[in-house]
Amino acid sequence: MVGYDGPIYMTQPTQAICPILLEDYRKIAVDKKVVEITKHIHDNRALRYVELLPLSGTVQEPQSTSNAFTPPLTHWLLSPCILIPSACETPGTSPLMLVDDELEIKAYYAGHVLGAAMFQIKVGSESVVYTGDYNMTPDRHLGAAWIDKCRPNLLITESTYATTIRDSKRCRERDFLKKVHETVERGGKVLIPVFALGRAQELCILLETFWERMDLKAPIYFSTGLTEKANHYYKLFIPWTNQKIRKTFVQRNMFEFKHVKAFDRAFADSPGPMVVFATPGMLHAGQSLQIFRKWAGNEKNMVIMPGYCVQGTVGHKILSGQRKLEMEGRQVLEVKMQVEYMSFSAHADAKGIMQLVGQAEPENVLLVHGEAKKMEFLKQKIEQEFRVSCYMPANGETVTLPTSPSIPVGISLGLLKRELAQGLLPDSKKPRLLHGTLIMKDSNFRLVSSEQALKELGLAEHQLRFTCRVHLHDTRKEQETAVRVYSHLKSVLKDHCVQHLPDGSVTVESILIQAAAHSEDPGTKVLLVSWTYQDEELGSYLTSLLKKGLPQAS
Amino acid sequence: MWGGTCTEDSAWASTPAAGKWHLPVYQDFHAFDLSGATRVLEWIGDKGDVPCLALKNHSSSWNSGAQPRGTQPLFWELEGLLVTCSNFMPRQHYISLMKKDLDLFHPSVQGCIPMAEEFVFALGDLAECLDPAVVQNLSSTLSQLILLLFPGILVAGYESLKKNEILHLILPLRLSVKENQGLFPERDFKVRHGGFSDRSVFDLKYVPDTRLLVTSGLPGCYLQVWQVAEDSDVIKAVSTIDVHEKEGRLWPRMAIFSSAAPGVLHGARLSSLKVVDLESQKTTYSSGISDDELLSSLQVLDADTFAFCCTSGRLGLVDTRQKWTPSENFRPGSGSAGGRWCAEAGGRGPGPSIASLGSDGQLCLLDPRDLCQPVSLVQCPVSMPSPDPELLRVTWAPGLDNCLAISGFDGTVQVYDVTSWGGMGRQVEPLFTHKGHIFLDGNGMDTAPLVTTHTWHPCKPRTLLSAASDASLHVWDWVDLHAAR
C-alpha cells in the first residue's frame, strides 16, 4: 500500500507466532470483516509491520472464497524477515542490531503481548525511541516494559490511555473470579471466548491458581487447536515471559495446567458446572459460537467477553444488549444467559508513560494516539517533572526538533599532557578551555598542537606581530628612557621576566620595547612596543600601561 | 502447590473453603493509585439523583425547523457516550445516546424531544425512553454550552515542598449509573482536568453551577481560586482570597454558599469567620466576635445558615441574617475531656441529623433543634486515639436512612446504621468495615496506610470512595453482612 519492499524487522517470538495469528485472522477475513484484522494485527507489536504490506488492500476485495487471505499471507511470509535479537525480560539484555555502518536498531522488552518490543533507532549520536503499545505493569504471564537510560533525542510514546488511572490488576481479577465463581457455585456453565494469544494464557493461569487455592472441582476446558498451538509457542519462548513463570519452569511447566483440560465437543452437553475457553473471541464462528448456542438459553450460565468485538459479530450484538439473535436459517436464539464484559487491556496508563519517560531520560517527548485537548495536563506534567519539551502534533502536522549533535573529536596525547602540565588537575564537572588546531581529514576530526599540525600539513609557521608606538615626554637620552621604562616595568610586573638587554632594548617575556628619539620634537621619546599574536593579552596590557606615562624620577 | 507463582494471592482468602474472606466476596471493589495522597474527595457535577446530560443548542442549524427531513444527524462525543441528534420529524429532535467503547455503539437512550433552545435529559436508567416533560422542566435551569454532569471527583495532593496535583476525575461509567449493568468494560478513572498547586491542599470545594474551585492549605494564609478550563484539560489558578490569620500553622476551613452570587465561608477560628463574595471579593458577613476557638469543620446548610464545629467539639448553627447568636452546645459527649472533634449535618430519615466524631472514637448524635442534649453518645471500636485528628471524617449517607461512615483512625472505613442507637456510652459495632487499603497494601500491619478521607457516591447508595496516605483511592460497595446471613 505504501510501496514498501524493504526488509521487515521483527522479534523472534513474533515471527513464530505470526503464522498462527494470520491463520486465525484468515478465518475471520473470509467473513469479510477486514476491520478486525487490522485491529488485531495491530494488537501484536511486530505484526504492525504487516500494515506496510499490501495486505489490507487485497483483503478488502469482496472475495468470498476462503483463499482471500492467501496471496498476501504468502507474500508476507516470503518477504525478507530479519530477526531482531531477543529483547528479553531481564533488564540489561537488549542487544544491538547493526543494519549498516550507521543505522542501528535496538529492541526493548515492551510487555503487552508476547514478542512485543519498543525500538530505538540510532544514527550516529542521534536516536529516536518508538514505543508502540507497551505495558508498565507486569501481568501473570508477561513482565513489565523496560528501557535503559538511553537518553534518546526523541521518545515517541503511545498515549491512548494517557488520561486513564487504571484500576488495580487485583481488583480486576477479583471481579473476574467472583463472576466465574458465582456461576459455578450455582451450577452454571461459564463460556470465555478468547483469541489464541495473550489474554487466554493470562486467564488460564489466573483460574488455575484460583481453583487450586479454593479447592474447586468444576472442570475447566480449553478448546483445542489454535490455543494449544499458541501455548506450545509460549513454552518455546519462555525467556519472554515473566520471571516468576521462568523460575517455576525449572520445577514444572507453567503452561501445563493441572485443572485445565482439553475440550471435547461432547463435553458441552454434560450436566453440571464447567468453565470453557473457546476460540474465536468474538463469537462469530467456530467452537465458541457452537457452545454459545447450546448454553445461551439457560439463565444460570454466563458468557464473559474478555475483549473487543467488531460490529456484526454475535459478540458485539450481545454486548450491545441484544437478547434475541437471528441465526442462520431464520432461527431466533433467545439469550437468557448472563453476559459480562471484562477488559484486561495491557496498555500503559499515565503513570506508565511517566515511568518510561523517567527511565529513558529523553530530550524530547512526543505523544501520539491521543486527543490533544485532553492531554495538555499530561504535557505540562512531563515538562515540569522532567524538564523536557513535549509535543502533541495533530495528524499530518510536522514537528521539527533542533538537536545538538555531538561530533567526536580525537585529541593527541601530547596536547592533553601539555594542557595537564600547565594547570591544576581538571575538574571533571567543569568545562575547560583547550587550545589546539582542529584537523578535519576524511570525515575524521582531530585536535592536535599547532606544531604538530604544521608538521603534518607541511606548512611553515607564520608570525604575526603587532607594533605600537607610545609617545613619552622625556627630555633625557633614549638610553636613560629605556632604563626608566625597565625599572618601572620591573616594579609593576613582578611575576614576569623583565630584562634590560645590552643593546638598550627592554623585554618583558617575548615582548620587545625599544626607545627612540622623536624626529621633530627632541623633548619627546618614542617607545616601540612589539609583540606576537600569541602574546596579545600581555602586549595590549603593556601598551596601555606605558601610555599612562612613567613615574617621575626621584 | 506451585512455586512462587501465587504468593500475591495469599490475601485472597485466608480460609478459602469456609467462605470467610479477607474481603467480602461479593463486595464490588476498585483500587487506583494516584500520584500523591489526597485529603480531598469533592464531588463535581450533578449531585442529584441521577447523572444528567445537558445540552444547549448554539448552532441554529438544527432547531430552525427549516432543515429538510433526514439531514445528517449531529454528533457529540462526551465522556464515552455518543450523542446524536437529528430532526427528521417536524419540530422535533430525535435524540439518541450511545455508549461508546472502541467501536461498540449501543443506543441506550432514545426519544423525541420538542424543539427547544436547550434541554437536559437523565441518563439514570440507560434503557428507558425519555419523558419530554421532564426534559422541558429541567431545561430552564441550565445555561452551559454542553455539559455532561456525570459525577466526577476532585482530588488534590497535600505534600509540602512539592508541586501537588489537583485532578478532576471521571468515574468509570459502570460506577456512574444507578444500576450496575455489567456491560461496561471500563473500570478505570479518566483524568478530565488537572492542575498544579505549589501549596499543599488541605481542603477543596467546588462552587456549584460554575467552573470554579476554591482550595485552602499551607503555607501562606490565603484561599486559592481555580478555574476549570472549557477548551482544554487544565485547571488554572485565577485569583486569591486573603485571610487574616497570624498563626502560620493554621489553615482556614471552608464552605460554599451557592447562589446566584456564590460566596466562600471561611475561617480558622470563630472570630475570623467570614463570607466573601467570589466575584467581587467583598466580605458579606463576618462573625464579629472575639472568641478565638479553633474550627474543625464548616458546613453550609441553606442559603442563610451554616453549621460549625470546633476542635473542642463545640457545635453551632448560625443564621447569617442575624447577629452572632448561634444555637449551640458547649460540651459534647457529657464532658469528655481532651480529644478533637469534627462533625457533619445532613442525616437522612427520622432521627438526629448531626453527627460529631471525637478522636477517641466517640460518636455523638444530635438533633439540630436541641443541640444541648445529645440524642446518643456511643463508642466505636477503633484504634485510639486517631493518629492525625485532622483526618477525622464522619459522613452521612445521602441515599440511605440513618446511615453514616467514619474514618481517620487507621486504614479502614466503618459504616454504621444509627437507627437503634440510644442512650449514652454504648459500644456499637459497624455494619461493614472496608479493609481494602490494608488488604492491597500487603506489607503487614506496621506500615498500614491511614485513611485520609472518604465520601459517599451521590447516586449509588451503597458505594463509597476512600483515599489513604499511600496515595491509593478506592471505590467500593458495602454489604450488610448481618442482613446477608
3D structure, described in words:
- The complex is a heterodimer of chains A (554) and B (485).
- Chain A is of the alpha/beta class.
- Chain A contains 16 helices and 26 strands.
- In chain A, the strands form 6 sheets. Chain A has a 7-stranded mixed β-sheet, with helices on one face. In chain A, strands 11-10-12-9-13-16 form a 6-stranded parallel β-sheet, with helices on both faces. A 5-stranded antiparallel β-sheet of chain A has the order 22-26-25-24-23, covered by helices on one side.
- In chain A, strand 24 and strand 25 form a beta hairpin.
- The longest helix of chain A is centred in the first third of the chain and has 18 residues.
- Chain B is mainly beta and 485 residues long.
- Helices cover 5% and strands 42% of the residues of chain B.
- Chain B contains 4 helices and 36 strands.
- The longest helix of chain B has 8 residues.
- Chain B starts with 28 loop residues before the first strand and ends with a helix.
Please tell me how large the radius of gyration of chain B is. 24 Å
End-to-end distance of chain A: 97 Å
Q: What class do helices, strands and sheet pairing of chain A give?
A: alpha/beta
* Radius of gyration from the alpha-carbon trace of chain A, in angstroms: 39 Å
| Major sheet summary line of chain B | 5 strands, mixed
Number of strands of chain A: 26
Strand order of the largest sheet of chain B: 25-26-27-28-32
Q: Show unreliable segments of chain A.
A: 31-81, 86-92
Strand and helix map with partners:
The complex is a heterodimer of chains A (554) and B (485).
Chain A: E1 8-11, H1 12-29, H2 34-43, H3 55-59, H4 70-78, E2 81-84, E3 96-98, E4 103-109, E5 117-123, E6 126-130, E7 154-158, E8 164-165, H5 169-185, E9 189-193, H6 199-214, E10 220-222, H7 226-236, H8 243-251, E11 260-262, E12 274-278, H9 286-295, E13 302-305, H10 314-319, E14 324-327, E15 331-334, E16 338-341, H11 350-360, E17 364-368, H12 376-386, E18 389-391, E19 410-411, H13 413-422, E20 437-441, E21 444-448, H14 450-457, E22 465-473, H15 478-492, E23 498-500, E24 506-508, E25 511-517, E26 524-532, H16 536-547
Parallel strand pairs in A: 1-2, 6-7, 7-17, 9-12, 9-13, 10-11, 10-12, 13-16, 17-18, 19-21
Antiparallel strand pairs in A: 3-4, 4-5, 5-6, 14-15, 20-21, 22-26, 23-24, 24-25, 25-26
Chain B: E1 29-33, E2 42-44, E3 52-56, E4 74-78, E5 81-89, E6 92-101, E7 104-114, E8 118-122, H1 132-139, E9 146-149, E10 152-156, E11 164-170, H2 173-176, E12 189-197, E13 200-206, E14 212-218, E15 222-228, E16 235-242, E17 253-257, E18 263-267, E19 274-277, E20 283-286, E21 295-300, E22 305-310, E23 315-319, E24 327-329, E25 341-345, E26 354-358, E27 362-366, E28 376-379, E29 393-396, E30 403-407, E31 413-417, E32 423-427, E33 432-434, H3 436-441, E34 451-456, E35 463-468, E36 472-477, H4 481-484
Parallel strand pairs in B: 28-32
Antiparallel strand pairs in B: 1-36, 2-10, 3-8, 3-9, 4-5, 5-6, 6-7, 10-11, 11-12, 13-14, 14-15, 15-16, 17-18, 18-19, 19-20, 21-22, 22-23, 23-24, 25-26, 26-27, 27-28, 29-30, 30-31, 31-33, 34-35, 35-36
